């Protein structure tokens, strides 16, 4: 019997632990679909792209890869990066190729503290901490503009330019996204992050747009903080944070800091959204391919599974998304932990535990 709604998902596990964690997330999603009694289903198409594909073809993805992806409802991504390909080639050849060309301009990266997971922050034991980093995902420092030049200078004198691009439209759309998100949260506050004292053009434009947009959200508290001060604030005053909006590079760094503070990069989820839905959005754990533990079966699947929950939110399946989050909390709370968060469970054991924790919620 066909499901009422079948979501077509492109799965791109890509490199290293990406393969294990995408498989784990797919199991969790398929468990939910099986229990939905025909309300929804997932139709998976797996793409073999990544660094092994590069070794065979000299490309990170097929030439017509974007055309192959464009009609899917979503992309479920693992991780990119392996020693056979320079990191900038693998990143631009696959992940950034997708995020840029599908205008996935909002990268949402929640920082979640889970029961049973020890945070390096002492105050996490006694304080409710929960914030989300909203990363401008289409321009800024990752606009890919610049070049290298040796002309007239000779070896040893090369110059390189890496230009950050800030457009008023790009700043405004990510800020409105952050303000709209803040309105859905218990603490209605947006912290804008720049380095506008040193970077006096693009980031001053960012600050100006932030002030202008804030006027439309009088119910949302605001602050503008320099990125160095915000790094300290993540550690010293994280209870003051709700939504943190920052440029591509700054938010990339801050979200890694946030997930490390929550206990591990292996826990962090992310959604690369094209909010207009002209293109598929992409859901992936924040972590990379982790070559040191790839193939050992011990990677933490929680970042990928929590990213699957973000995908369900994108589809409007909010109840099921919350069920995944509750199952993850039950799992870590019961002491089922992978090595990165102080346990010795395997990827499969954690996934089993999450699927088991889901089952009672699925009985109708
Ligand atoms: N799953 C995320 C991933 O593979 N990240 C690799 C990486 O280096 N990303 C840089 C970025 O987020 O722009």
From TrEMBL:
Listed EC numbers: 1.1.1.83
Reaction catalysis annotation: (R)-malate + NAD(+) = pyruvate + CO2 + NADH
InterPro entries documented for this protein: ICDH/IPMDH, IsoCit/isopropylmalate_DH_CS, IsoPropMal-DH-like_dom, TTC_DH
Keywords associated with the record: Manganese, Metal-binding, NAD, Oxidoreductase
EC category: oxidoreductase
Residues of the Isopropylmalate dehydrogenase-like domain: 8-354
Any one GO molecular function term: magnesium ion binding
Keyword Cytoplasm: no
Pfam family, one: Iso_dh
Stated family: Belongs to the isocitrate and isopropylmalate dehydrogenases family.
NCBIfam families to which the protein is assigned, alphabetical: TTC
PANTHER family: D-MALATE DEHYDROGENASE [DECARBOXYLATING] (PTHR43275)
Protein name: D-malate dehydrogenase (decarboxylating)
Native species: Microbacterium foliorum
